[in-house]
Every structure is written in C-alpha cells, then in structure tokens.
Amino acid sequence: METELLKLIKKALKKTKEELTLKDIPPIELEMPSNSKLGDISTNIALKISRHAHKKVEEIATSLLSNLRTLLKSSALEKNIDKIEVKGGFINFFLSKDAYYKILSGIKKAGKFYGCQNKGKRKKVLLEFVSANPTGPLSVAHGRQAAVGGALANILRFLNFAVKKEYYVNDKGKQIDLLGQSTKARCLELMGQIDFQFPEGGYRGQYIYEIAKQLLVKYKPQTLREKNISFFSKYALTHILALIKDDLELFGVNFDIWFYQSELTKHKKEKKVLAYLKKKNYLYEKDGAVWFKSTFFGDDKDRVLVKNDGSYTYITPDIAYHEQKKERGFEWLINIWGPDHHGYIPRLKAACSALGMQEEILHVIVVQLCTLFLSGKVVKMSTRDGEFVTLRQVIEQVGKDAAKFFFLMRRTDSHLDFDLELARKKTLENPVYYLQYAHARICSIIEFGRKESIRLSKVDLNYLNEPQELEIIRVLRLFPATLINISRTLEPYTLTLYLRKLASLFHGFYQKHRVIQSDKPQLTGARLLLIDCVRQVLANGLLLLGTSAPTKM
C-alpha cells in the first residue's frame, strides 16, 4: 500500500512542482497517525516544501491535493483510498473498507511473521547489555536492563538485523581484587580467626559468606590461610558468574557471547590501541600520566588513560574493547548502561571518533533506576530478610512474564515505579495479565467455534461494519509501523503501549458484541477471523517482548 501511495504522491508532486515553479523537493515521508480522525496514512511533504520554497503551505497542499485526486481516478489505489483531506498542512489519506479487509487477509496469511520486515538488511549489530560486574547477584536495576536488551534484540532480529547479544565480563581490576579480599576475610572469620581484617569498601553481602562456606568444605583451613588473593578472586568470580547466568536463564534472557576483559590484556589490545592513538597524535604526557585529547572530539575535558604509576584508568580497556568490536565487523554498536554511567558517554564517543568510527555507529541507551513498591510503601534496597533486592527475588515473587513486562512499561530514560503487589495479581488490573487474558480468551472463543462446527469455506469480511470492528483493524495495521519505530528510537516500551491498546479494543468489543451467533454464520465467520488476527498480533508482540502468550488461563 505505502509503496504504491509513494509513487502516486511523487507523480502528483511533479505536476505541483511545475504549477508552482518549485525547485528542490525534499524526500517524502509517510506516517500512520495514532488518531483515526487524522486518517490512516499521512504526509507532511507540503510543510517541508513550504519551509524552503517560501510559499504558503495551504497553496502547496491545495495544488498537491488536486493533482492527487486526479491521478487517483486512474490508479489501482482508487478502491483502497476512501478520501483525502488537508489538515494543518498535513495531507491525510483515509483507507476504504476494502483496504481494511485486505489487512486482515494479510495478517492471516503472514501469521507469526506478521510485522516481520527487511528493515535491517542483515546489518551486523552488537547489543551489549547487563554486563554487571561479577561481584554480586543481579539487582533489580540489572533486571530492567536485561528486559530492555532482550526485547530490543528480538525486535531488531524480527526486522532482519543480524543481532548478537553480548555480556562484557569485567574480570580484572580493583573490584575483583576487593572481591578476593572480601572472600578471604570471611573465610578467616568463619575459621574463628579474631584478628582478620575486612577490606575497606569490600563486599558485605550474605553471598560472600556462602562462597566462604563452600571453600571451607573443599579446603583445609591451613591451606586457605596460605592461598593468595588471586585464588579467592578467581573462585568467587566463577561462583558469582554462575549465579548470574542462572538468574538470566530464569529470566529468559540469554547471550550469544560472553566477552572477558582479561582477553583484551591477553592479546595486548590496550597497548595496541594506545600505540594507535599515539601515532595519530591524540595522546600527550602530563604529570607523569598519559592523557587523551578527548576535547578535540567534543568531550568537556581531556582524560587520563595511563596513570603515573603505569596502571590503566577505567576507560582504557573500554576503548580497546570498542576497537575490538569494530574489528569483529559490527556496523552498529548498542550499549545499554545504568544511569551512573551517563557522564561516561561523551568520553567513550570521543574515543570511538578517534578510532575512526562514524558517530552514528555507537548508540548508548541509559536505563534509569527502578523503585520497588509493596502495599504502597517503598521497598528499601537492603539485605534484611523479607525485602527484595535481587532480580531472582522479584522473579520468584511475580514470575518472569510480569517482571519483564513491568520493567518495559516506561521509557528507558524515565524512572520506573514497580508495584510488586499489582504484578502478582491474577486480575485484569495487572497489565500483563490483561494482555495474556485477551489472548487466552480469544483462543477459547475460537475453540468453542470449532466445537460448534462453525466452518466456512469462504469468509465474507463485508459483514464487519461496526465502528469497533473497523477501529480494531486500523490498530492491527499499526503493528509493523510500531516495530519500525522501535528500531529507530530503541524504546521497546512503545510496544507495551500498543499491545495494551489492542487488548483494550478487543475487551471492549467483546463486551458489546457477540462473536459466535449460530443464526448468523457469515457474521460469526467474519468476527472469528477478526479476533483471530487480534490473537496473532498479541502473540507476536508478547513473544517479541520475551513474555509468553498462554492459550488458557
């Protein structure tokens, strides 16, 4: 539909250009208005031309509208376009019922592939997310990042992007040394050593005690006393990383690649990237340290890469890591970070520019924090019994479907209030239950229709004339465009909004109209096909979000 309409608009513009002696014509963009009063398809081409042609938008739109109507009379689109009107400089196209009925036929034919498009053209995308330091269990904040990353990967793959999901394991540095020191200290404590010292800033969670208890089962006390810190670091890291992987599996989020920071050092990537930047004259020495000229690339100040003691700052392995991503042939790098990394973005982008990457290659999504509520009260992020602090605890309380959906219900740059009590409810108040119940209810209706032996060799969709029926079809048509929009904004929350609207329309329709009417087989057949298309789109959307689409509830 859109392809043919674009051709028609281009032909009309050619005539309009001659009539109004216009010069350059900007690219034509089509959008699908969310408000049905503004049509099914809209273009702002008249507004775009008026900005450059110094002509009134009304004059351009009137001429274009006249030419469009003339061309439409001899076009194959005539049966699909009911009317065209101009409003606020926008040219709005209203589809005919025939066009609406074709939408249902298209959904039925495409099935689970409805909405699948070749937007990505197999562009290689590396989506790096969660990447929590392996020094403790995944938190609620990590859970939100995991939900966003998992949903984005599903949607981008559905649009034919070649996506790889990667977890960056920070297995080197001060925090890993602290992990080892903390673990050894707990071992000494459990052995009854009075003079043990717990490291300043060490990890005090109960999980460190559990690791220490495991070590005491495996090794004799004297053996542990003689072990160096790296032994404890390695053991604790392996244990915690296994916990993280278990939590992610429980959450239904998996990764294609687990990339270890130690691999960078092993292959001397940091040294190589420093040599490259030095060769490009992007480094200088000051106060015994090596500085990166990041202000040259838009950062607010230059950054230290090598401290005066010869050790690397946090950004140095990150620069090497992103150079390594580029070497692996990825064309689009998407990082999902927490809000504490927001100020880190300019320096990383500066580094990527210095490495010769185009600005649009790197995209960083900052996911804001989440506040848990229970019975209207904030759940404090502590380790006291009965309070939820980890992703696993949330999943165990509300289930992975509810957890994912609630994590996805707001824009990534908005703080999220997570109502645990609401997420647990098996009622229509719960947004994810509301969607899944709509899907299950439709499955039940269709199954009942089969039992009633309602089978038609050919469904006549002309029986669908109710305003609610046509509005459902209109919203069904918006599904592919919703996914395309997400590929541009990288905001999967818009899919949750879309699905809730579709489910609301179905529930409203079902309350007002009977689907199965034995004395009206043709109407029944048309309505069964309509709600089956709703079921299909709900299923496709829920699965893209990483949640299930149950057939019974």
Structure summary:
With 553 residues, the protein is an alpha/beta fold. It has 21 helices and 15 strands. About 1% of the residues have low confidence.
Question: Can you describe what's shown?
Answer:
This protein has 553 residues and is α/β, with parallel strands linked by helices. Among the domains are: 2-95, 2-Layer Sandwich (Gyrase A, domain 2), CATH 3.30.1360.70; 102-117 and 428-545, Isoleucyl-tRNA Synthetase, Domain 1; 174-250, no CATH class. It has helices spanning 2-19, 45-53, 57-72, 97-110, 140-158, 174-190, 206-218, 221-226, 229-251, 261-266, 269-279, 315-327, 345-354, 391-398, 400-408, 420-424, 431-451, 467-477, 479-489, 493-512, 521-545, and strands at 30-31, 41-43, 81-87, 90-95, 124-128, 162-169, 257-260, 283-286, 289-292, 303-306, 332-337, 362-366, 370-374, 377-378, 416-419. Strands 7-6-5-11-12 form a five-stranded parallel β-sheet, with helices on both faces. It starts with a helix and ends in an 8-residue tail after the last helix. Mean pLDDT is 93; it is low at 383-387.
Descriptors for this entry?
alpha/beta; Gyrase A, domain 2; Isoleucyl-tRNA Synthetase, Domain 1; four-stranded antiparallel sheet; 12% strand
% residues in beta strands: 5-15%
* Helicity level: 40-55%
Give the spatial strand order of the biggest sheet: 7-6-5-11-12
Mean pLDDT, all residues: 93
Low-confidence blocks of residues: 383-387
The counted number of beta strands is 15
User: And the CATH topology of one domain?
Assistant: Isoleucyl-tRNA Synthetase, Domain 1
The coarse silhouette is flat
The radius of gyration computed from the alpha-carbon positions, rounded to a whole number of angstroms, is 29 Å
Taking the sheet with the most strands, its summary is: 5 strands, parallel
